[in-house]
Write a structure and sequence with these properties.
- Six copies of one chain form a homohexamer.
- The first copy, chain A, is α/β, with parallel strands linked by helices and about 260 residues long.
- The first copy, chain A, is built from ten helices and 17 strands.
């Protein structure tokens, strides 16, 4: 059975339906042709230039990512920005690019369910659902779940060990950790949602100065565990899901993509 | 002297400075790399897919057009629309794309000066200038000029013969032709400007039903001479200008690009 | 039974209910008094000044049109634009003006059903409905239907002959004509809708340069058969509908209103 | 010398130049034809239906007012609102309508200079100018000036007597009256401007509940002397100005226009 | 049973649910702490500085008003405006502020039901409902009801006597009073709604010049009975409602708050 | 000489004039009364609740900060957010709050000049000025300057040691450090400005995932040295400036305010 890009996109949408994405978001086929044959797929968190090069080196004809190749719609496609570099390279090498972004964040079994499971949370719920799927299950960005009541310092060790983040940034809300909200990527502005859901701790990334202070003042532990480290775990799950749905297509996981952010 | 894309863009901007473009417009390097070497340029009105193919067939490494490759900033680059098709083809074949749009419409010696001259107008002015260039000369979209006073039917023959438009569409304002405003492309909504400039006739394209009626009611002859036919004459002038400014670069004029609109 | 303007408007709304109009549109009583007696109606496509004069000459006290007398809400009512001229004339002569615009485009039996029938299409559907009427039938702008499979050139002859358009403008999508979408007036930006509905051909008007190229590139035959010629057929149907609903009122069809756009 | 509407408009603009109006405002010829002959003008504060009738009864061919005939651009011209009633009547009777609104408020010798003079203020200034006229004089909405220091109760008597307002509404800011700001019509939101200009008292109209309280709290006497009574004095001045500039044209002042607001 | 602010707010919301407010409005706890104990409440129409002082003098720990303490969200909290003065005083004295604004206007038994009853109207309805409450009853701003058919002059006496307004402002629509719409506060732009509901008279406040004229022209009696006088009656009802729902809390009605607007 | 809040604000504005702030920003007196006497000032980066408590404990009557007490204009002043907590505390204790935000970032001798000097940069310029001060000097957000050419790792040590940031986050652009741009606080989106100014390195804070990647891809070293650590150095300079301008007023530097963000 010969696969084309459309088949892959349909497989992705069975996991992360298109209607679950936020209005401002971009997902689906963002570069290439819907009817292009697909024999080898590279799965990665981002469609950055070095990942595009890896796709070419490994002979992939399709790149499947979480983050969209195009976020701000571009007025030009040139090497003066990262998006232009990637599009020029992909097009020059006939590699298509497909992604699932906030639909993969929100869906059952997506970014945030994976993150909650990796952190060992139990009784996982969707604290502020934005809709209900065909099976009647709520979906939405955050997940909340229970861990054994423990001091914050102990939970920080758990996060570092499970996610592999070299250094965590955090604000201490002054409470032990028991009910934890998670939001992979940039959910630092969800501190009120986390509190309203009865959580004492929020794990996310890209947290800003004011968000740390607001959280600490309101008594919430706020942990920045890195955008890459909180979201990358979904790639393995996404790759496995595609392997099962697309027999005959080789599914590779990116080996070159690591976080570029270092600590000193 | 080895030329790169930046040199070509600077040559274009000496004719049609970037600051003359409208705010909503797009011009400059829209696809490729600023430092890419340039040995052969194809000049055409549009960066449509068949023109991109002609560029490849003729070995051009740069496509210079009037219309921008990207107008509405795209959320994806795929074959489901004309812009995506062109970008994918250009990037796949390493051909850069540069353009000058409303800056070429407005500048001295650009689209509308060429159109006015082709139509044989005398005492050409800029009836509604939007600025003044470094030399103190006004620039703007429309041009107005004089022709020998003649019946509309006679002037229609002139327009057809000079521009090569197979069939003209027009509304008869009931006055002989003497003072003519021209605006290549879609300037059908400039009928008030033309009247305020004392013109009896406006030559433009893409004219809509209401604009024909409004013009006729207000006593203006309004002639739709075709978007392609009113703007394409600038290509020869633009090519010649580049030839003089870029010695050593081969400058070709598109042979494949004709109007796709037919009459029956 | 003495009729007033309100009775006529209600008769129009039974054919083309007010809720079927687009949000940005204008319809209903746009000039005059709701309680004014009506004995003679002139039906025309447009409320342009020469049509208003015809109404006066024929002794009509009400003008019923498809296009609205007021589209862009005016800051003044003067003779410096066509709308002002018409309002001043109608008010000076005590003639009211009523219209049904996009509600008449979208309704069952309106502009586009008439257009599809005049072109001889079979199995007419509403390809992209925007709502459902009280009878549970979908309504919307476009209509799609089948014709005998034929070369484009043959279908162009059919269109010219049936609609009376002196000259057609078109782009050849490279496919024979079999499934045709129609949209009277300015529906040139509906080429994607037509393609998604499985059509090979779209008949509309006021088509712009880019729309011709986009259609041709995507393989759609796009025919500009004139705004007037694609919409005027509804007038006869509208007049007949009013005759049946308003016994005792004389219903005239405009004889003066022809397209002002000519070809050379 | 035969006058046309354009001559009258130019005469008005010599007093109240068009560039002095606010961006959102409407002024000039709002109904009729610029080249219509003018032999008799009715000057009034408003172009309301009963004033239009007075114009007809007195044989005026032009109505000159302060308030614009059209403020909110109308989607229809019918008898279901006051603007529609007036336009229908004027057009039916061939009477043109011209006005000067915020340009007459702001200009030297306009609404607010007249109001300040009627109230007997001395050393009149423009406290918050919005521009400078050709003569280098500032212009703007409010005027400020001095009166003999007096108790508020005494100044209320002056206002009533000079303007003829049957009943004043006011808030007592707790200070004697010495430096007074005036703004004819609806300037109740200018209380901060008045305070910053060092005024103890503001005379205007259409004052709202919150504005009374805000003024009283901040120590400003705020007097609502009626929209009609604060602006109508300009009509006599405007009429006189036209008489001098338009010899041979009969200039009448409205006798029918009184405030419709009564007190009980 | 010790009460806190949250208990009071819930009691208010049982009368005037939060979902009944308009989108642009502000209601609830606008100053202070939700868990602050409450033993004494001052109820008043407005949270103006003198009312805040009365609250302090009487030992109240909570101020309950109709109008919101914060309407336009402030960029600063200082004594240069009334809102800042009130917030600084309340915070300095530990007095919380809670309000119900358009939810109290719209709810069953709120501002406008009270106003209609005080004016003795019968068969009270909600002429233009904006929603339906849990009991299936419509809610909305205006109320309409019947009074004995009477001359306007007689009804004016009724309004003055029942509401205590020192002076009414009104426009005479030329019809006797029989079916009356009421809208406490600033509902002068509801004249069309009142007419469409079949009313001959509208009682409201803060009426502007144009609204008086529009109403008179369209045949509606429009009465401005004062913002304070049309809304203040709800305070007594609100206080009584809180007394019943909050046993053990002392509920005082403001004695200092009178209208600051005077007549001369 | 007795000082009031206005005197302090004028002293601040001599250093950081109000006109240098961005349009969206907030600065000046944000809580309290302009005429309140001032004897003791606490200077701190932020007006957070613990800083307000420190002000009270130390007997300060005025809090002077860089960040504004109010950023998003609040619809309520309660303890459910940090801003509300601070306002309630300040007002309850009669402490005024004044700040200089982007005007202090942009001015000569402000946040970014101090940051550049602390990092030992030489030949400091304003790479993208937004205006010119009275002395003809450009002002703007960023500063750029030279350091001895050195490996990135060495410069990271300098930054940590000079600013005291416990842990830096950074992306390695692959170039040695020589020309450095600095922007205290959240200037992560200025990477293009830094590159256009010829810089190889940008020091700022609150950097997001995409900004690290974009910088690295374009060859810029991007260092997040902490919002607190990059901006707090200005406080000492601001305090010293006030000491010189306000003799007789005691100026304290906050001792309680440390970054709440920790690393693990």
């Amino acid at each position: 059975m010969h696969m084309i890009v459309r088949d892959v996109l349909e497989a992705i949408h069975r996991l992360a339906p298109s209607y679950m994405k936020y209005d401002w978001d971009n997902e689906g086929l963002l570069c290439g042709t819907m009817t292009q044959p697909v024999t080898k797929i590279l799965v990665a968190l981002d469609p950055f230039p070095h990942v595009c090069r890896e796709a070419k080196e490994k002979g992939a004809d399709l790149l499947v990512t979480h983050h969209p190749l195009i976020f701000q719609a571009p007025k030009s496609v040139t090497d003066k920005d990262m998006t232009g570099k990637s599009i020029l390279f992909l097009a020059a090498n006939g590699i298509a690019a497909v992604n699932a972004h906030t639909n993969l964040d929100c869906c059952h079994g997506g970014v945030n369910d994976v993150l909650a499971r990796v952190l060992g949370l139990a009784e996982i719920t969707v604290p502020s659902p934005i809709g209900t799927d065909e099976g009647g299950h709520p979906y939405g960005l955050l997940r909340a779940g229970l861990t054994n009541k423990q001091p914050l310092s102990q939970f920080l060790d758990v996060v570092k060990e499970r996610l592999g983040t070299p250094v965590l940034r955090y604000a201490d809300g002054g409470r032990p950790v028991h009910r934890v909200a998670v939001g992979g990527g940039s959910c630092g502005d969800c501190y009120e949602e986390a509190l309203e859901a009865g959580c004492d701790t929020l794990v996310t990334a890209d947290v800003k100065y004011n968000q740390f202070w607001e959280a600490q003042t309101l008594g919430l532990n706020l942990i920045d565990a890195g955008h890459f480290y909180t979201e990358n775990p979904v790639c393995r799950v996404l790759a496995e899901s595609l392997r099962q749905k697309l027999p005959g297509v080789e599914i590779l996981l990116s080996e070159s993509h690591k976080d570029c952010m270092k600590f000193a």
